[in-house]
Amino acid sequence: MGVEASRAYVDAPITDLSAATRAAARAAEHWGADRPVLLRHGMNAIFASGELVLRVATPSVPARASIELAEALGSQGIRVPAPRRADVVVDGPMSVTAWERITESNAPVDWVEVGAMVHQVHELDHGALPAAIPIPSPSVLPWWDFDALVERAGGALDGPAHDGLMAVIDRHRGWSRFGDTVLCHGDVHPGNVMMSTEGPVLLDWDLLCRAPAGWDHGPLMTLHDRWGGDADVYPAFAEGYGQSFVDDAAAVAFAELRLVAATLMRVVAGISNPDARPEAERRLQYWRGDADAPSWAAQ
To answer: Half-sphere exposure of 262 toward its Cβ, with a 13 Å CA cutoff?
Structure first.
């Protein structure tokens, strides 16, 4: 069974892309695969390598746990990427795992089915998961330490934006005093769902955790209003799940605080990275109370 933990499986971004690229190249050579081509990077660096997808991460536990987790979830009928190699290539602090390269469908994501899969996840018991996989409370995530993030943002926050952010932080100070909890995917949003020819596939289980069920509803509840997403996504997801959480106080708190975290992380990133500043400014307009604040990008 999964274990309670003080860290999520991956809670630190890839900061050395050159090192990640070298690790991917070493893994491709080890497995006799094609030269890796970077697809995207953030918390992980993802590379295409012929029929494989190589995932480079700095996990908090041995990366074999992610392979075992995928196998356990798949055995429960939950559609996840399938591991394509049983071993892990370790290069310094980085671990490389190999996964199937999913064939995407031209059909839109079936959010009703995604909701049904998430409900199935919520009904799983710890005993269905591998022993090594961490299942922390989301309260340990560093980007949910709002006071620390505000302090790091410092002078990058003007007065009105600071006040708008703090109003939400203060309103939800008790967000981590959970009641009943379930096993949660932890990061359900369009970037973590792929529509395959066999149906939707739920990606990126790095933030697996135990939290109230509304934790997995929060990201989609603000998808249309803040991220410019389709207004039909959350209603479809809730239909498949079997319940809407738009009137659930905890889910509303999670949804609003995710917006705070997303803003503060981008503001902090912009202090050292000029490329992050335009999006940070877009997000701050909302917290200043600008009625014409634009939708945000880079979910």
So the answer is: 23
Judge whether 113 and 77 are in contact, CB under 8 Å. Answer: no
Instruction: Cite the beta strand spans of the chain per DSSP E.
Output: 37-41, 45-49, 52-57, 89-91, 94-100, 182-184, 193-196, 199-202, 209-211
Q: Cα(63)–Cα(95) distance, rounded to whole angstroms?
A: 6
Sign (positive or negative) of CA dihedral 231, 270, 170, 166: negative
**Which residues, in sequence order, are CB contacts of 152 under 8 Å at separation 6+?**
264, 268, 271
- 117 has pLDDT over 80: yes
DSSP secondary structure string for all residues of 231-286: TTHHHHHHHHHT---TT-HHHHHHHHHHHHHHHHHHHHHHHH-GGGHHHHHHHHHH
What one-letter code names the amino acid at 106? N
Say what the pLDDT of residue 33 is: 98
The confidence score (pLDDT) of residue 169 equals 98
How far is it, in rounded angstroms, from Cα 194 to Cα 217?
18
| Poorest-pLDDT segment among 1-5, 85-89, 93-97 | 1-5
Return the closest-CA partner of residue 156 out of 275, 297, 272, 286. 272
- Are residues 84 and 71 in contact, defined by beta-carbon separation less than 8 angstroms? no
DSSP helix/strand/coil, 48? strand
Which two tokens mark 201?
A: 């596939």
Q: Which two tokens stand for residue 103?
A: 């064939």
